[in-house]
Specification:
The chain has 779 residues and is α+β, with helices and mostly antiparallel strands. It folds into 3 domains: 17-28 and 49-299 and 316-363, Rossmann fold (3-Layer(aba) Sandwich), CATH 3.40.50.200; 371-440 and 594-779, no CATH class; 445-501, no CATH class. Helices cover 14% and strands 35% of the residues. It is built from 14 helices and 37 strands. β26 and β27 (592-604) form a beta hairpin.
């Protein structure tokens, strides 16, 4: 039967002797190398939130579940505990006692056994075994319950059997540090303390441990009889090595907090000297192991208090980090514990809580500047920034379903070069609504035009547009910034120059290619004419030049050069698109007209309108060769039939560093058919109906290469390649009915009814129906 024992420890303090830095037990009974990212979880994940976990509030306080759920348990990590030894027969920790455990003072392993209980209690906080089947209210497991404890009994021989309790000399502690160091131990817990300063022998051993990359946790010290608040305002002198410049932050001083995360009244505090190397953890009524009942031999749990039991919580946390991320060095583990701690007390490092409370949940998240591992053309690995990795998908690709699925298991490296799995598909964004009503509704707003005849055969037609909708807001609230650059207006212009009866030139600024080639005013449809390759060159900072040549009375040739830009300010992405095209229009009869465009579009920084960068970059740019076809038939009774189709082949210039190694065989196209009728219901009206498919990728693939595994020992990254389809899963089909009423007292009324199937070529999108009524008047 497990019982609780109440005992008291005396504190001895001299310049050469140290005592256990934990308070007395009181009251009644109450992560081998795992290479993250962890393997896929089993069908039934392990439940670590058990009774024995909850029995020690300190485990939940430092958010240990986050580490356990990530697969870290302390397996393969050894923690040296320099203390009074360990109960070698205790079933709750016997399996986790390292075979190199020994008695440093006597040099005899047979003297390892703990005669005091303090060392056993400290070791239990670190690595008491996990036994979820035991649901009693007294047992608990250690922070790193699969870690090994190298118990180093450094107590002066015979001291633990005296009424004054165990004492520890500097030479023995120094010898224990060296013993652990030469055996490759990474973590040392020293829950001892005293008012005297460390001897040169001990300081030198600390130096050697720091230089070897070890992390050392020291107890800050407890209130002694007669101690004032001033004495408790900083750690005991035995911890002074922690803030020495050479300690490099690898010596951590541990203070104790209670269940409410409030500093214990018996704990020494950080003070001005130790506040940058001071952390806190549970140290009031912490359940852990102790010595068996001397009468019955039954094992017992105790409630321990003191900074001696805050320190092993931190040591256990360090063990979990070392296991989960084998690449970490001692300085990096210490820095992670400091930088991810929950800030308590005054903001930042303060004189009470120092850096704050251990927080494993944050420590197991990516920290610092993150990057993505990608494969170079030469087959080696390189990293690109995570923050700048994003893709703004063009509408032709739909939702990039295949691409996003191929990127959902990418490898992210944080600022400590730790590996995490990340779904880079979350960095793929859509361009929003398929129909941009602001461009359509405002197509005629503020339009102005003027003509100037230069001679018998030359004439200049000038049209422009200014948008002053925000002038009042600007003048009232931003008058101090009312410069030409900041004026809230949208200036667009078009210059038509008739050279002679057969030749013409058109220059346009701020207009789409369609607007430059045809009548400036948009037609009555919301969707038709905005679905092909020419629509990829928008109005933004666009310039166009068109040369027209009549070849005959029925045939006209047009040569087009155009440039436009697109921007994604959030990620500072910009693209430039250049189009060179020949347009041929031929009238077969008075009622039938044919047209064909042959062109090349060169994109710098985009792929069919998709802007991307970093690890999800589709490529540096693309060259698309396209053909557009048009057919028009003027039927009797004011009816007109039209049909349009486009098809293009795109060659993508591969990105230098991206998960997307190559895009190939990219094909895309669009179509529209419709009818228009003039003066059908009343004179001057127009009724129109059309069915269209916006530009859609009809074929193509992307080769994606990502890291499948990482060997932490060799830092080797194993890449695998997958080929994914770029064809959207859905197909957007737009049905549109448009009606324009004749002018009524100078007012114009237009009605559009639009129904979209699979908007954005995304099968997951619900069908969309909209009604638009436009009222306008010219004056």
């Amino acid at each position: 039967m497990i019982k609780i024992l109440i005992r008291a420890f005396l504190v001895i303090s001299t310049s050469v002797l140290l005592v256990s830095c934990g308070g007395s037990p009181s009251g009644q009974a109450p992560s081998g190398n795992v290479a993250p990212p962890p393997p896929p979880p089993p069908p039934t994940p392990t439940n670590y939130n058990t009774v024995e976990f909850r029995n020690n509030y300190g485990l939940d306080q430092l958010k240990a579940l986050a580490a356990y759920d990530a697969g870290a348990t302390g397996q393969g990590i050894t923690v040296a505990v320099i203390d009074s030894g360990i109960d070698i027969d205790n079933s709750q920790i016997q399996a986790n006692i390292h075979p190199d455990s020994t008695n440093i003072a006597t040099g005899n392993k047979a003297d390892l056994d703990d005669l005091d209980g303090h060392g056993t209690g400290v070791s239990g906080v670190i690595a008491a075994i996990r036994n979820p089947s035991d649901r009693s209210n007294v047992n608990t497991h250690g922070v790193a319950f699969n870690a090994q404890i190298m118990a180093l009994n450094a107590a002066s021989p015979g001291s633990c059997e005296t009424t004054d309790g165990c004492t520890f000399s500097d030479p023995h502690i120094a010898q224990a540090l060296d013993y652990a160091r030469v055996r490759g131990v990474k973590i040392v817990n020293i829950s001892l303390g005293g008012d005297g300063f460390n001897s040169t022998v001990l300081v030198d051993s600390y130096r050697r441990a720091v230089n070897a990359g070890m992390v050392i946790i020291l107890a800050a010290g407890n209130r002694d009889p007669g101690d004032t608040d001033l004495v408790l305002s900083q750690p005991e002198n035995s911890a002074s090595v922690a803030w020495a410049p050479w300690a490099n932050g690898q010596i951590i001083v541990a203070g104790a907090v209670d269940q409410s995360s409030t500093i214990s009244t018996n704990s020494h505090k950080a003070g001005t000297l130790a506040k940058d190397v001071f952390l806190v953890a549970a140290g009031v009524d912490v359940p852990s192991l102790g010595l068996p009942d001397p009468d019955t031999g039954n094992e017992r749990f105790f409630l321990w208090s003191g900074t001696s039991f805050a320190a092993p919580h931190i040591a256990g946390a360090a063990a979990l980090l070392f296991e989960a991320f084998p690449n970490l060095t001692g300085p990096e583990v210490a820095d992670l514990l400091f930088t991810t701690a929950t800030d308590l007390g005054a903001v930042g490092s303060d004189v009470i809580y120092g850096r704050g409370l251990i927080n494993l949940e944050e420590a197991f998240k990516p920290q610092g500047t993150s990057s993505i591992a990608v494969k170079t053309a030469a087959g080696s690995s390189a990293i690109v920034g995570f923050a700048g990795s994003a893709l703004l998908g063009g509408e032709a690709f739909g939702g990039f379903a295949g691409l996003t699925a191929g990127m959902e298991n990418s490898l992210l490296l944080d600022g400590y070069n730790r590996s995490f799995r990340v779904d880079l598909g979350q960095r793929v964004f859509g361009q929003g609504q398929a129909v941009r009503l602001d461009n359509l509704i405002g197509s005629r707003r503020g339009s102005r035009s003027s003509s100037l005849k230069l001679g018998l055969s030359a004439q200049v037609n000038l049209s422009w547009r200014e948008d002053w909708r925000f002038q009042e807001v600007e003048e009232n609230y931003f008058s101090n910034q009312n410069t030409a650059k900041n004026r809230a207006r949208d200036l667009r212009m078009k210059l038509d120059l008739t050279l002679n009866a057969n030749q013409s030139m058109t220059f346009a600024q701020g207009l789409s290619i369609k607007e430059a080639l045809e009548d400036y005013n948009q037609d009555e449809f919301l969707t038709i004419g905005r679905e092909d390759f020419l629509a990829l060159v928008g109005r933004k900072n666009s310039q166009s030049a068109v040369f027209g040549q009549k070849l005959s009375g029925r045939t006209k040739l047009g040569l087009v050069m155009s440039h436009g830009t697109a921007q994604w300010q959030q990620y500072r992405l910009k693209s430039n698109s250049y189009v060179m095209m020949a347009r041929l229009d031929h009238r077969l009869t008075r009622s039938v007209a044919l047209g064909v465009d042959l062109g090349v579009m060169d994109e710098k920084g985009s792929i069919l309108g998709s802007l991307s960068s970093g690890a999800v970059s589709l490529g540096r740019g693309a060259t698309t060769t396209f053909v557009n076809g048009r057919f028009g038939w003027a039927m009797a009774g004011g009816m007109n039939f039209f049909a349009r189709a486009s098809y293009g082949l795109t060659n993508v210039a591969a990105a230098e560093l991206s998960l997307v190694e190559k895009i190939g065989n990219l094909r895309s196209g669009s179509f529209s058919i419709g009818l228009t009728g003039d003066s059908l219901l009343q004179k001057g009206d127009r009724l129109s109906f059309a069915v269209s498919q916006p530009l859609r990728v009809s074929g193509g693939y992307a080769n994606i290469s990502y890291v499948a595994a990482r060997n932490y020992q060799t830092n080797n990254l194993s890449f695998v390649s997958n080929q994914v389809s770029l064809t959207p899963g859905g197909r957007e089909i737009d049905f549109e009915l448009a009606y324009r009423m004749a002018d009524i007292f100078g007012a114009r009324v237009e009605l559009n009814v639009l129904h979209q199937v699979n908007p954005g070529h995304n099968r997951a999108n619900r069908d969309n129906t909209g009604v638009l009524i436009r009222l306008g008047s010219e004056f």
